[in-house]
Amino acid sequence: MLSEAIANELRAIVGSNWFLDSPEDLATYSYDGFLPEYKPDGIIIPENREEIAAIMGLANKEKINIIPRGAGTNICGSSVARQGGIIMAFHRMNRILEIDRENMCAVVQPGVVNADLQREAARFRLMYPPDPASMFVSTIGGNVALNAGGPRGVKYGVTRDYLLGLEVVLPTGEVIRTGGKSLKSVTGYDLTRLMCGSEGTLGIITEIILKLVPLPTSKATLQAIFLDVDHAAKTVSAIMASGIVPTTLELIDKVILDVISDYGGASFPKDAEALLLIEVDGEEVLVKAQGERIEEFCKERGAIEVQRARNAEEAEMLWQARRTAFGAVARLRPNILVEDATVPVKRLPDMIRVIMDLAEKYGLRIGVLAHAGDGNLHPLIMTDLRDEEEMARIDKALDELFEAAIGMGGTLSGEHGVGIAKDRFIDMEYSEKAIEIMRGIKRVFDPNNILNPGSFL
Q: What letter does residue 278 receive in the DSSP assignment?
């Protein structure tokens, strides 16, 4: 609980309208996409770097926890006050400061929504590739903090691959800059990449420089239906091994296809076990040839139906199944737990089988979405957080799921982050010494442990 004196000091920094502590506001900011609730002591909404530096100076002096928060869409619990403190929100810092066409980069504030940057870059015939499913809501600052990915990650990579530089306010109130507009820099430790994926534990990001790429001139979108999920998964490996690098390569299993059909989003053959949604982009001649080869790959490996979009409208129709998946599944149970264990692409069929076996073993309803081209699986576990007995079964299933992923040479998280959702599993992937090194880095940046305490470290 904050004292009234501290609350007044914070109001003096940002203005009385931008420090919130009513019961309604505290409830609004008590959860993120992970859903368990942790009530903060207040919410502060700064306008600029100077205000943030003053806030952090006061917080460090008074040992007040600060939890940075973008749009709160993350599903690992990295933007909630697990140990109390103040949520720092960034929706006032939402300006695209510059699209630098000659240097092919953008300079933005952390509260800029991903899709808004995509649209602005497109006006200059440029593209910002990282496209998380939450792109129409999630902020660039949050994307950087969690190193967000998305369907285009197969070809284009994730946030860190486009991060050139940052302005950061440290937990002690000092301001540092890392990187810049130069495409190459090997001077000293790579602090820019260290901040990326640090989940709000090392500093407050106040300005971001991002690399942009030319907007592709052409794309081809295909949808393939399979009667066997193993055949679909093995088709993924075959496409990747062929030398074709798709922009996106998504897999949807039967559990979700059936739900989508009931939802009215699209219709599929009743015996369909899996769907692949595949997109390639680039020069028109190359794209046409790749689309034809992919169609052959799918048919040779058991696809009973392959559709190739003839125009943008048909492509959007093919994407409809993928876009409606979460909404359709969300109707079935009060809550959905979305994991993101990731394995080498060759092991994708094995990992899908593990998930299906765990669903049967523990009596759970689990659908599988996957960014299949990079081995990133999204098991959608349909549940009710109030059902303690079912949640206990889910915990056992998750233990086995992550153990299997790590055993296949994979990782706990391909794009969602660790947060509080997966903190208990981190020693599966990292040795005690490696975790201690991470904690040592945290102590250098944040000696009083005020920045997002209670997260994965």
A: E
Angle at 380 between CA 378 and CA 386, to 5 degrees: 140
In angstroms, the CA 138 to CA 56 distance is 24
CA distances from 66 to 112, 252, 419 (A): 21, 39, 15
Give all domains of the chain, ordered by start, each with its CATH number: 96-214 (3.30.465.10), 217-331 (3.30.70.2190), 333-417 (3.30.70.2740)
Looking at 345-387, list the stretches that DSSP marks H as alpha helix, in order from N- to C-terminal side.
Answer: 348-361
Task: Collect contacts of 119-126 with beta carbons under 8 A, ≥24 apart.
Answer: 120/96, 121/212, 121/215, 122/215, 123/99, 124/99, 124/212, 125/214, 125/215, 126/99, 126/101, 126/212, 126/213, 126/214, 126/215
| Nearest of 128, 104, 103 to residue 115 by alpha carbon | 128
Q: Using CA atoms in the order 33, 36, 37, 43, what is the torsion angle rounded to 10 degrees?
A: -30
Residue 337 backbone zone (phi > 0: left; psi -120 to 50: alpha; other: beta) = beta
In order of 160, 167, 171, 178, 192, the CA distances from 188 in angstroms are: 18, 17, 21, 10, 11
The type of residue at 212 is L
List Cα–Cα distances, 204 to 20, 43, 335, in angstroms.
19, 15, 31
Each of the 457 residues of the chain gets a pLDDT tens digit; together they read 899 999 999 999 999 999 999 999 999 999 998 888 999 999 999 999 999 999 999 999 999 999 999 999 999 999 999 999 999 999 999 999 999 999 999 999 999 999 999 999 999 999 999 999 899 999 999 999 999 999 999 999 999 999 999 999 999 999 999 999 999 889 999 999 999 999 999 999 999 999 999 999 999 999 999 999 999 999 998 999 999 999 999 999 999 999 888 776 678 898 999 999 999 999 999 999 999 999 999 999 999 999 999 998 899 888 888 888 888 888 889 999 999 999 999 999 999 999 999 999 999 999 999 999 999 999 999 999 999 999 999 999 999 999 999 999 999 999 999 999 999 999 999 999 999 999 999 999 999 999 999 888 8
Nearest to 49 by CA among 202, 208, 162, 211: 208
Tell the residue number behind the tokens 């190193």, with chain if given. Answer: 147
Q: 318 CB contacts (<8 Å, ≥6 apart)? A: 221, 222, 223, 277, 307, 309
φ, ψ (nearest 5 deg) of residue 303: -65, 130
Give the span between the Cα atoms of 413 and 274, in whole angstroms.
23
Cα–Cα distance list, 409 to 45, 322, 348, 375, 442 (Å): 41, 27, 11, 11, 27
Mapped onto helix, strand or coil, the DSSP state of residue 106 is: strand
**How many CB atoms lie under 10 A from the CB of residue 313?**
8
